Amino acid sequence: MIKIENYINGQLVAPQMGNYLDNVEPATGRVYSLVPESTESDLELAIQAAEAAKENWANTSLEKRAEILCRLADLIDINADELAKAEAIDNGKAITFAKAVDIYRSSANIRFFAHAGTQFSSESHAMGNLAINYTLRDPIGIVGCISPWNFPLYLFTWKIAPALACGNVVIAKPSEVTPMTAYLFSKLCIEAGLPAGVLNILHGTGGSIGGPITTHPKIKAVSFTGGSATGAHITKATAGMFKKLSLELGGKNPTVVFADCDFDETVSEVVRAAFSNQGQICLCGSRIYIERPIYDKFKATFIEKVQQINIGDPLAASTQHGATVSEDHMNKILSYIELAQQEGGTILTGGKRRTLDGRCKDGFFIEPTVIEGLSNQCHTNQEEIFGPVCTIMPFDTEQEAIKLANGTQYGLASSVWTNDLKRAHRVAKQIEAGIVWINCWLLRDLRTPFGGVKSSGVGREGGLEAMRFFTEPKNVCVKY
Ligand code: TXE
Prior knowledge:
Layout: E1 2-3, E2 6-8, E3 11-13, E4 20-25, E5 30-36, H1 40-58, H2 62-78, H3 80-91, H4 95-119, E6 124-127, E7 131-139, E8 142-146, H5 152-165, E9 169-173, H6 180-192, E10 199-201, H7 206-215, E11 221-225, H8 228-237, E12 244-248, E13 253-257, H9 263-275, E14 285-291, H10 295-306, H11 327-342, E15 346-349, E16 369-372, H12 379-382, E17 389-395, H13 398-405, E18 410-411, E19 413-417, H14 421-430, E20 435-438, E21 453-454, E22 457-458, H15 463-469, E23 471-479
Parallel strand pairs: 1-5, 8-9, 8-11, 9-10, 11-12, 13-14, 13-19, 14-17, 16-17, 19-20
Antiparallel strand pairs: 2-3, 4-5, 6-7, 7-23, 12-22, 15-16, 18-21
Helix pairs in contact: 2-4, 2-6, 3-4, 4-5, 9-10
Bound molecules: ligand TXE.
């Protein structure tokens, strides 16, 4: 039984109180490792280590910081197969997806921000012959990074990389549901020569260690990705503490398909948008709106392609659709499928737990599910299910499509499929979301602002947005 350890002050250590949580493999339903249930005593050790490392790391040259981060990215690439397998076992996702997406992006995240750190500049403002203003962008100091289970190492590195590149020292908490790759990453940090205390990784639940990280007086900024309810809880818990908060929360993303789209490519991409990562991506297109003239044809072709998705053992190279991340999450998704039928929905394909043979016979697998005949206001179309479940419905006019798309509390991402250039720009302008993809989905440039509006969060990650979040601007005005 693997016993995962915290990474504090450059060393792998057991939790102070000696408590552990079971870590279950989603594909088999069996406990395969133990996760520290860290507490405030572990946090204090991490804070002490971060305090001791803070000044040196902030004064480490940009080039040296970039060199260490690039070495870390290289070590991820060198260990990509081991990390991908660990991610597939821990999260339940297909190993080919873990390799091509999760681990690829994990090293890309670190390398991108290693370079960003050497290019990040600030402004000056001349006041004629009177004075000169220059802006300093100093690291904040000790920052907190809390990440979710859907892209464990990918979203973990997406947060810590800019924080470190800007010269901050980090207290990070991966999800207790998928701790393994952050643990393996700790070992790569030691191998890469990351100075002790610069990054500290504490494992455990939100209640035992996540909350204390967000409210600790010495942690001046918190970058969080997770559910909107948790984001709201963190906002309340930190009220009056004047911390910088970056909240990347849930989504209920619309896919709007016009009749003039490139039909075959659009159907394939809309399937990918709905079911990638078993639908466990905050960016997944879970509400599909189709212009009526092509509705029947699109529906038939879409269902046919969904039924071709290969559900299987996450460790098999042929698998396209793995297990959902936990028994609790599987049951949450199945309850939403039940609710959808109570709300008048018709299941066009899927809708059930899938029982596999062999080692995965007790795994948490759900069939890719498509539901038709629901209102836009029902729970199924209003609430984030975060699983392999999508709904489809027709629309008649552009304005109706925009109203349907904007008709939820969320506003993270969206995709619009049309060959009418003017309509594409017009619709993109009116959709309430932080990201609008036109004739594509999940096409990512790490320089772009990433995040949502409404209940999908506050702030943006990515590129300069992340560098600005993890620094404090100071204006210095010098009179001539
Ligand atoms: O998120 P949580 P979970 C959505 C999705 C999913 C729901 C819950 O709808 O069903 O969120 O998923 C830590 N203070 N998304 O349980 O609970 C927790 O330990 C500080 C969308 O993963 O928000 C974990 O490390 N931290 C999302 C992290 O927060 C706390 C991706 C996320 O946990 C805490 C994942 C607290 N009080 C889920 N409570 C996206 N936008 O991509 C928990 N945590």
